[in-house]
Specification:
heterodimer, B: alpha+beta, 7-stranded antiparallel sheet
């Protein structure tokens, strides 16, 4: 009698899924229901392989949601319970949305591993490909001759709590290899190229002046626009420009004043304040002029005439014209010298 | 008897040395050295974990916590909510995933990554980044903080904020209340421990202004 009762209860829980086989399950389940759940989620229920209807009769009934039940899975030596579906022997499918509130915290609270045999058959397909390395494998520990100066040299003082494992292993070490340097973006590429050449001078903007615009967004926006598209845009690459809120600790904590509307503070690389404006009444052109005046921008020489530049190609041209002019002058001079001599005759 | 005592004393001395910490949890100044990048408390991002995936509880987000601190420090608005986004994703990080996420969420933001065993390149990248005011996200395979919690080997990422000829300092997203100082060589060893490969990631943004001074 007890056996019959157990069979009846078991049938209630697993009856809908127990007839699943290689050709699929008898209960139709929407494949969309398990979208974005990873490669192992639906591969045991190939609904898409069923033959399509050849004749339209009526709207198909809404596929029933698979019955969820509690399953125990093993993860990193711990046993946790999840609401999901037993998709295949040794495989549990679940999704975070189906779990009760506070589920994550409950997982974190599970610290004591349970005996291995109870869950050994469940775990076969649960682990993902980026399984972290062994956490506390003392057998791999190799003391260094100089313990104070080396890693991994000291024996553990106590067992690590399993529910802290996530803190220790956020990097998937198996995915790190010998790829070398890789840069994204023009400045980053310049950085990498310079290192490959043996000159570790990257985006070396450490010699640029810093312009800090401090104030609310509506006050800083016109200033930033002057650097982006306004009169200072063509020189913006010579500067490091950044806007801050008045309460930003990155400026407040180091003592930069922020009582303007906005404050515009220009510092040389060593931190020396070269200019401080309490508003933007000067406009873009005025600010540009001030930046030139304090040396933040390179200024042009009003006495410079490009036409007077020496150079290889232009020197040839200038030299030719010079020779022609010289010959003309010489000829004219000779003519003048000859005229008086005729007069004497 | 004297020999036995001597042997015991030697063992005790050796054990004491072996258990001595090779790092110091301190503030932004250590032995008179001021940290290069002094991240204010408001810009510290403590570690958390991502959502569960494929039957696994969420993995740690140390990579993204380190990147988040770097992005905040350098004022990269596209990445202002990077960590909050990653809390809705499966945890864990590796170079290819960082590239994928950064390109998707901040297409215009430059960054440099290195993975490998070339110590000189690692040093050059670190020194250049810090010289220009940019912190360095770097792998971390060992720490006294973890040894005291029973882990001799970790797969972790931290934020490197100082690296001179003698000292290195990190901000560990599992211990953001402290700046952890250690000898320069110790940092390089920990970064490559245990596989020998070091992974370094540097975001290219605009660092904050230097401490002001009068002309």
């Amino acid at each position: 009698m007890k056996l019959l009762l157990v069979l009846a209860i078991t049938g209630q829980f697993f009856g809908s899924r127990s007839a699943c086989g290689p050709s699929g399950c008898p209960t139709p389940v929407s494949s969309a229901y398990y979208t974005n759940l990873g490669p192992n989620y639906t591969n045991s229920t190939p609904f898409y392989t069923q033959p399509a209807p050849v004749e339209y009769l009526e709207p198909a009934p809404t596929p029933a949601k698979p019955a969820l039940s509690w399953h125990r899975i093993k993860f990193e030596g711990r046993v946790i319970s999840v609401l999901g579906v037993k998709a295949a022997p040794g495989k549990i499918d679940y999704r975070p949305e189906d779990q009760p509130p506070g589920w994550r915290d409950q997982i974190a609270a599970v610290a004591e591993p349970e005996p291995e045999p109870k869950v050994a058959a469940v775990d076969a397909t649960v682990a993902i490909e980026s399984t972290p390395k062994v956490l506390f494998d003392q057998s791999k520990f190799k003391p260094d001759p100089d313990p104070v100066q080396s890693v991994g040299a000291v024996a553990p003082t106590k067992a690590a709590p399993a529910n802290e494992a996530w803190r220790f292993n956020g990097v998937n070490s198996s995915q790190i290899g010998e790829q070398g340097l890789k840069a994204v973006g023009p400045e980053a590429k310049a950085m990498v190229e310079s290192i490959v050449e043996g000159k570790p001078q990257i985006v070396d903007d450490s010699n640029k002046y810093q312009v800090s615009v401090i104030g609310p967004a509506e006050a800083t926006a016109p200033v930033l626009e002057a650097f982006r598209n306004g009169p200072i845009a063509e020189h913006a690459s010579q500067l490091k420009v950044r806007a801050f809120a008045k309460t930003d600790p990155l400026v407040k904590d180091i003592g930069l004043v922020s009582d303007g509307d906005p404050d515009i503070i220009v510092q040389s690389p060593d931190g020396t304040v070269r200019l401080r404006l309490k508003d933007f009444k000067l406009g873009g052109d005025g600010l540009r002029a001030e930046l030139i005046r304090v040396g933040a921008l390179r200024k042009s020489n009003p006495n410079y005439t490009p036409a007077k530049d020496p150079g290889v190609s232009s020197a040839v041209a200038n030299g030719s014209w010079g020779a022609v002019a010289g010959l003309f002058t010489l000829g004219a001079g000779l003519m003048l010298l000859r005229k008086p001599s005729r007069a004497k005759r | 008897m004297r020999q036995v005592l001597l042997a015991v004393a030697l063992c005790v001395a050796t054990f004491a040395r072996a258990t001595a910490d090779s790092e110091v949890a301190n503030g932004p100044v250590h032995e008179g050295v001021e940290v290069t990048i002094d991240v204010p408390p408001a810009y510290l991002r403590e570690n958390d974990r991502g959502i569960p995936e494929n039957g696994r509880p969420g993995a740690g987000l140390c990579v993204w916590a380190s990147l988040q601190m770097s992005a905040w420090w350098q004022g990269i608005p596209e990445l202002a909510d990077l960590f909050e986004y990653m809390r809705t994703q499966p945890g864990g990080g590796w170079p290819a995933r960082v590239e994928q996420v950064l390109k998707a969420r901040a297409a215009g933001v430059g960054f440099v990554q290195y993975e490998g065993k070339d110590r000189e390149t690692v040093i050059a990248l670190i020194e250049t980044a810090l010289k220009t005011g940019r912190p360095v996200c770097i792998t971390y395979g060992y720490g006294d903080f973890y040894r005291k919690r029973g882990a001799n080997q970790i797969s972790h990422m931290v934020l490197l904020v100082h690296f001179d000829e003698k000292w290195a300092a990190i901000i560990d997203n599992n211990d953001v209340a402290n700046v952890t100082w250690m000898p320069r060589e110790e940092l390089l060893k920990r970064a490559a421990y245990p596989s020998g490969d070091t992974w370094v990631c540097v975001l290219i943004g605009t660092p904050p202004p230097p401490i002001p001074r009068n002309p």
